[in-house]
Amino acid sequence: MTHSVQALPLAQLALAFIPALAVICVLWRWGLNYRNAIHGLSRMLGQLLLIGYFLVFLFESDQVWIILGVLSVMVLVSSWIALRTVRASRAALYGRALISITAGGGLVLALVVVGVLRLDPWHLPRYLIPLAGMIFSNAMNSVSLAADRMGAEIKRGVLPGEARSIAFRASLIPITNSLFAVGLVAIPGMMTGQILTGASPLLAARYQIMVMCMVYGASGISSALFLFSLAKKAPGIFIKGAGPEKRKDA
User: Fold this and answer.
1) What is the pLDDT of residue 82?
2) Does the keyword rRNA-binding apply (predicted)?
3) Which residue numbers in the chain have pLDDT < 70?
């Protein structure tokens, strides 16, 4: 027997804010920055409502150029955010990050859409956009960790080859931890969502296996491409940028 997800009235949804408000009260009573929590919750609410309306429009659209435009924005923005931890070298590294995330994430996305799911047409937004979001966000995080660790090691005087190996290993720590924890510590979001919509847990597990493989592959390939593109230029990029970063933070 299967059950579809029930409609969630706004009055019932409001009850979910009670634990969050309790945390805000603790922050306020303890003299901490409760305004930041209110700001974060407000942004979360607004952003999710906006993306909900946008996705309704997107899912009803059959225009390839709109889908490609959304994917382009995802890649451009994720490549910029990935370099948030190395602001002084951001301009010099942006092109490398953009190419790495586009190539690493794009290849994995194409394999999943064409080879695994065999979507017809390939640009079905209901599948393509959520999958692309998972792939590019994980690739972004991996490149961000790689850039941050590579810069730190270079500034410590580590040789580029050794620094690259250290940075690559560090960039894979979060996703590798997820591989060990999935199914034991947590049931991931996609699998949970499918189970809530009435899908068989065994079928949901297959889809989650696909997701874990694709995000691990996209993360590793994007990080490796980014680090490979630096080669022996890393000392010049990171050390040269160390000065402006310190002045900006001062």
Assistant:
1) 94
2) no
3) 1-6, 186, 240-250
Cα three-residue angle 17-30-12, rounded to 5 degrees:
5
- The domain spans of the chain are 8-60, 63-241
Two tokens, residue 232: 């022996």
d(CA 48, CA 45): 5
**Residues 133, 134, 137, 143, CA torsion sign:** negative
Each residue's pLDDT tens digit, 47-79? 888 988 888 888 887 788 989 999 999 999 999
Residue 96's pLDDT is: 95
Q: Is 39 helix (H, G, I), strand (E, B) or coil?
A: helix
Residues, the chain, total?
A: 250
* β-strand partners of 182: 186
Helix (H, G, I), strand (E, B) or coil at 158: coil
Q: What one-letter code names the amino acid at 110?
A: A
pLDDT of residue 56: 85
C-alpha span between 178 and 168 (Å, rounded): 17
CA angle 160, 165, 169 (to 5 degrees): 145
Question: Which residue is associated with the tokens 């809530």?
Answer: 196
